[in-house]
Design brief:
Blueprint lengths: L26 E2 L2 E4 L2 E5 L1 H8 L11 H18 L7 H17 L4 H31 L18 H4 L3 H17 L3 H8 L19 H22 L4 H21 L2 H11 L2 H4 L2 H4 L5 H9 L3 H19 L4 H4 L5 H14 L9 E2 H18 L9 H9 L5 H11 L5 H15 L3
Antiparallel strand pairs: 1-2, 2-3, 3-4
Length: 431
């Protein structure tokens, strides 16, 4: 059976080569190739191509095909273990494994090892999700903090960790851990669309599970609100300015590490309206370093500066001699957006009805690159106290942030004054 072609051979430097599939001189049973790379074909032809027959397996005994099936199942369960969280999939796997093992006892040990590894992975994921649920239950909004004097708050980010470089390292710990639990299946599930003509409610696609992907997006939002909370909470503008400069140093170190997701979350938190309106506070901040970081993450020209920096980090990772140099944590929301538009902007099938393999090669390239990045082991020492604070300390809601901002630097116009009064009444119970 033809081997999966290298992705680079399918595309030239300009992107998709959309005319390749029109070359019919390499037609092979309804499948079209260019330089031995599969480009397109009908789904029926592809299925037929994968079905064993006399030409594929002259000796069709189970001893002949079992190694191939076992290899397929091994790669499937190792690369896409989340597929088997579905009870029906696990049941089918066990039934197939039993049939393979019954053909020859030599396969039984390999089958047992395969199932044990899969069950262990799924158990680890379930435990991780339980931990996330507990963390989310404790890390609620904290508008009630405003009902007491801010001076009574004993802990803030700088008292917990006064070194911005250490905080950047602990943020990287969280990022890599959460990335590691996102399965490639979740990208497929995130964008799968149910066929309106498919009335079979028992199909596998109804088991849409993207919990770890969604939890990672929620982490980005939490970090942004945590940054804004830490800046708006102090009473004195001198201390607020110090917190801003502290987070600028954290963000810069995140950039140096290759942790672009935390970097963007910190910048997003600083750009929230309750923070950006604190003009007297910002006047005391040395903003040159902040503007450099903003320039790096500038969304103009489709995040050109960021994408350039990401390519540099990816290249560094390929030639790295240490785990620190291997770290590449992409701005995750933009990665999701890229995959979404690739999925929506390119048809699954070509005008002739064939499967559009070029689209799926590109999707596979992006997800495979992500899979490589998420497997890097964090080289920094863990600090449980700092991690606990980052993950569980209460953060302000939008309304609480605005109220804290107005309490720090008073309203500047009638609209802000009216909102301030409304928020004081709603959150503090007084006018």
């Amino acid at each position: 059976m033809p081997q999966t072609p290298p992705f680079a051979a399918v595309f030239d430097s300009s992107g998709y080569n959309r005319n390749l599939y029109q070359s019919k001189e390499d037609n092979c049973g309804g499948l079209y190739y260019h330089e031995n790379n599969l480009l397109s074909g009908s789904l029926e032809a592809l299925i037929q191509h994968l079905v064993p027959n006399v030409d594929y397996y002259p000796d069709n005994r189970i001893r002949k095909i079992a190694p191939k099936i076992l290899q397929l199942l091994t790669e499937w369960t190792e690369t896409f273990p989340y597929d088997f969280r579905d009870e029906r999939m696990m049941r089918n796997l066990k039934e197939l494994a039993q049939r393979i093992a019954s053909g020859d006892e030599m396969y039984w040990k390999n089958i047992q090892q395969l199932l044990q590894n899969l069950i262990r992975k799924l158990a680890t994921v379930s435990q991780y999700e339980e931990v996330l649920a507990k963390i989310n239950a404790t890390s609620t909004d904290c508008p009630t903090v405003l009902k007491t004097k801010p001076q009574s708050i004993q802990r803030d980010i700088i008292t917990v960790c006064n070194d911005p470089y250490v905080l950047a390292q602990q943020l990287t710990h969280i990022e890599l851990e959460r990335l590691n639990y996102i399965g490639p299946e979740e990208f497929v599930q995130a964008f799968v669309q149910k066929d309106p003509f498919d009335n079979d409610k028992s199909c596998y696609r109804d088991q849409k599970k993207t919990r770890n992907l969604e939890a990672y997006v929620e982490w980005f939002n939490r970090l942004s609100y945590l940054v804004a909370t830490e800046i708006c909470m102090p009473v004195k503008k001198k201390y607020r300015a110090r917190v801003i400069e502290y987070f600028i140093d954290v963000a810069r170190e995140c950039f140096n590490i290759g942790n672009f997701n935390s970097l963007m979350a910190i910048i997003s938190g600083m750009n929230m309206s309750p923070v950006s309106r604190l003009k007297k506070t910002w006047a005391k901040v040395k903003t040159a370093k902040f503007y450099i970081l903003e320039h790096q993450m500038d969304p103009s020209s489709n995040f050109y500066n960021y994408r350039t920096a990401l390519r540099g980090a990816a290249q560094r990772s390929l030639t790295a001699h240490s785990n620190r140099e291997k770290i590449v944590i992409p701005f995750f929301s933009l990665l999701i957006k890229d995959i979404y538009f690739l999925n929506e902007g390119c048809a699954n099938r070509l005008p002739n009805g064939h499967v559009n393999f070029e689209k799926f090669w590109e999707l596979a390239k992006q997800v495979s690159e992500f899979m490589m990045w998420k497997q890097v082991e964090c080289p920094f020492e863990r600090d449980r106290k700092i991690l606990q604070y980052l993950l569980t300390v209460p953060v302000f809601s939008d309304d609480a942030l605005y109220l804290a901002s107005y309490e720090s630097e008073g309203p500047e116009n009638h609209i802000e004054k009216d909102r301030w009064k409304t928020l004081r009444s709603a959150l503090l119970g007084r006018v």
